[in-house]
C-alpha cells in the first residue's frame, strides 16, 4: 500500500504525507477534543531520509504512546533537518479503531521531487 502526497512547499508536502499515513491507519477520525502536542525534531542524510524518518516517527508515537495524530504543523524542512508539531490525543482502543496495522514506511520505490510549482512524493509501507 502506498501514499502519494503533494504540497506547494516541502513543509506542506510533509504534513500531507503524514495526514495520508494517519488516514491509512485510522480511516476518517471522529471529532477530537482535548488535544495535546508533541514537538518533533529529526535529522537525516537527505530529504528522502527525512520523509521516511518523519513518517516512521509518527508510527512510533502511535505505537508507543497510543497517540492519535489529528493534525500536523511542519515548521521547517531543510536539506538534512526538520521540525514539526503533531497535535492529537492519547486514545483507548474503543475510542479510535485502527483500520490497518502499518509496520513501517519503506524506501521501496520512494520518490520525492520538485515539479514546476509544487513538490510530489510517492512511498510505500509494510503492512
Helix content: 25-40%
Using only C-alpha atoms, the radius of gyration works out to 14 Å
The SS-based structural class is: alpha+beta
Which stretches are low in confidence, meaning pLDDT under 50 for 5 or more residues running?
A: none
> Would you count the extended β strands for me?
7
Which descriptors would you attach to this protein?
3-stranded antiparallel beta sheet; alpha+beta; 127 residues; 4-stranded antiparallel beta sheet
Short note summarizing the structure:
The protein has 127 residues and is an alpha+beta fold.
Topology at a glance:
Layout: E1 2-7, H1 10-26, E2 36-43, H2 47-65, E3 67-77, E4 81-90, E5 104-105, E6 111-114, E7 119-126
Antiparallel strand pairs: 1-7, 2-4, 3-4, 5-7, 6-7
Helix pairs in contact: 1-2
Explain what you see.
With 127 residues, the chain is α+β, with helices and mostly antiparallel strands. 28% of the residues lie in helices and 39% in strands. It is built from two helices and seven strands, in the order βαβαβββββ. It has helices at residues 10-26, 47-65, and strands at residues 2-7, 36-43, 67-77, 81-90, 104-105, 111-114, 119-126. Strands 1, 5, 6 and 7 form a four-stranded antiparallel sheet that branches. A hairpin with a 4-residue loop joins strand 6 (111-114) and strand 7. 27% of the residues are buried.
Amino acid at each position: 500500500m502506498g501514499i502519494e502526497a503533494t504540497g506547494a512547499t516541502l513543509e506542506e508536502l510533509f504534513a500531507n504525507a503524514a495526514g495520508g499515513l494517519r488516514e491509512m491507519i485510522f480511516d476518517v477520525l471522529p471529532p477530537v477534543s482535548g488535544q495535546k502536542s508533541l514537538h518533533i525534531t529529526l535529522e537525516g542524510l537527505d530529504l528522502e531520509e527525512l520523509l521516511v524518518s518523519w513518517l516512521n516517527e509518527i508510527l512510533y508515537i502511535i505505537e508507543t504512546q497510543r497517540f492519535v495524530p489529528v493534525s500536523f504543523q511542519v515548521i521547517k524542512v531543510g536539506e538534512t533537518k526538520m521540525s514539526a508539531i503533531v497535535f492529537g490525543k492519547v486514545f483507548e482502543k474503543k475510542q479510535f479503531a485502527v483500520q490497518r496495522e502499518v509496520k513501517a514506511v519503506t524506501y521501496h520505490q520512494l520518490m520525492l521531487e520538485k515539479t514546476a510549482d509544487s513538490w510530489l512524493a510517492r512511498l510505500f509501507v509494510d503492512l
